[in-house]
Design brief:
The protein has helices at residues 3-19, 26-60, 66-99. It is mainly alpha-helical and 102 residues long.
């Protein structure tokens, strides 16, 4: 997880503690989760775009530090892998809920 994502998660948790989670309506919880998820996906997209831009600069022969290019590419890769794993876990959880007998 990136530092920004951890900070966002901590802020959501602190807000939830202050507002008593039990008083949150399902609509508010859904909107909060939607906003958090959109922000996280936007950050992953920004990381991928930065990596692509840095890679293009190296390919064109511009004066770019190769270490910075590699670090940016690895950050983007880790962010994408984390997002994929979170998606996979969410799908698994949904499938498990759908298998439950009521």
């Amino acid at each position: 997880m990136e530092v920004n994502q951890i900070q966002q998660l901590n802020s959501i948790m602190s807000i939830a503690k202050k507002n008593n989670v039990n008083q949150t309506t399902p609509a508010k919880a859904q909107q909060s989760f939607k906003t958090w998820l959109n922000n996280a996906i936007s950050e992953v997209n920004e990381g991928q775009n930065k990596s692509a831009i840095m890679t293009e600069k190296v390919a064109r022969g511009e004066n770019v530090d190769l270490h910075d290019v590699m670090i940016t590419a690895e950050k983007a890769s880790v962010m994408l892998q984390t997002t994929t794993e979170v998606r996979n876990k969410a799908i698994e959880a949904y499938q498990e809920i759908m298998r439950m007998q009521v």
